[in-house]
Amino acid sequence: MRSSSADESTSGAPLLGDQQDVENGAAATEDPAQPAQRRKRFTCQELFWCPETGYQPGGRSAVLSTYTYAAVHGATDQLLPASFKSLEIDLRLSPVGLGTASSCSRIAHAIACPLWGLAIDCCGRRRMFASTALGWGLASALFFFVWMPWQVMPLMCFTGLFMAAMGPLSQKVLSEEVPAESRGTSFGTMHFFQSLGRIISLQAATSVSGLFILGAEGWRYAFAMCGLVSIVMAICLGLRVPDSAEQKRLQKSSGVKWFSPKELLYVLWNGSFWSMLLVGILNGIPRSALNFCTMWFQYCGITDWWSSFIVSASWIAAMFVAPFVGCLGDYASRLSRDHGRPLVAQISLILRSGLMAILLTCIPLQPSSFWIFLVLSVLIGFLAGWPGVGVNRPILSEIVKPQHRATVFALVSTCEGIGAALLGAPLVGFLSQTVFGYISVDHSHKLVALTDLQRQSNARALSRAMLCMTVGPWIANVLVYCILHKTYRKDRQLQTVFEDAPANAENRIDAAQQDVSCGDNRPQRYKSALS
């Protein structure tokens, strides 16, 4: 460390007396660094929502990039539900067809997610950020040229294929860079930005989808613009996001190292992992089924913009509450290490089920119910994301080995995609048409040509179908979390032992080597340390 006189000479300040140097030495030493510290305060990395990482260089940049990636991912994911009504009219897609289109994306997501998880654990995160965002950006931009119903299906498959990387990639980066006691807050902040992207996409796409701009439908421009933003983001992330220090070391020593699937066999004896798989399947069903909400509000007689506003209000509530949900999950975990997080999930699911049942069954299906729809949607939004943000993600980061976090989370996300693809939106479309009497709108007449009685009949059919596919899975999830109360403690403690064993062995070896280097004649201790 340089002396204070050297610092003064470098900065051009006159030399002071010895006594004054002693009194003001610290201030003189810090003076040259003060401008740099002031400049650092105004960077985006010092904002309140960026966590203190302290793990490795470039950690904050990776966390902020994950938040940006999540926002654009949420915007892209919301494009199709926001355009359901326009696609029904312009491309002659029935609710079954719309559900099938959504299902194509979910199936591709379910198939690709484990592969992305394996690639993320073995390859650098920089190339994963860039390649996946570029892929879904190109697929979204190609929606501008869709003119036939069958063309929607392959594009949705390609979109789901690349968007499947979001879950395991964010799980890997945030688990690596954020300490365990703050991960719930970090996942909540990520959910905030993802919801923000969904809100912007929902409002913009729904508002312009029914317009004609330069001879083309407005929803085409919405897809094209979102695709362009994704491509630009992919280029920026590819240039900016650093790989982790461990990944750089592995790439220099042996290149990309793929681990064997046999290394994951220990997960099969993890009861909490199986609970998370079942939770994923059940959680994907309502998430996919609620894609019909905007369409349902439109059939209730509410205009396009206000229909999207109600759904956006729910997303806004979920967006602002997400960081606090993460903090609540962390606080509940500190109060009760074994039961706090599962209990938070159970309370939120019970409250949300009751509010959803009231919304879908007890409110008159007419425009005058707008304010009731809005209030209930906001309350439901406040309870959204509690299991995922405050419970599932932090628990998954604690019950598996660090080098397998992305792969294991991908398996859970795959189960969620299977539930969404097979039992979510497709079953809502099927039940509404074949069981509850939905009247399809074909190309021969527009939605405005339906009578009020037919509109209410369609709204009632959609509400009953969504009720079956939302409240039922949520109540089932409450029961699954009861299993987690029994398994979480044992699985977490076992994983803690696995993580601490290599570090303890390394410390014992270092201590023994230090004894040898100091000339201590204690061979027995050295042998025991190595054993």
TrEMBL record:
Residues 1-12 have a biased composition (Polar residues). GO terms for molecular function: transmembrane transporter activity. PROSITE patterns: MFS (PS50850). It holds the Pfam family MFS_1. It is a multi-pass membrane protein. Keywords: Membrane, Transmembrane, Transmembrane helix, Transport. This is Transporter, major facilitator family protein. The lineage of its organism: Eukaryota, Sar, Alveolata, Apicomplexa, Conoidasida.
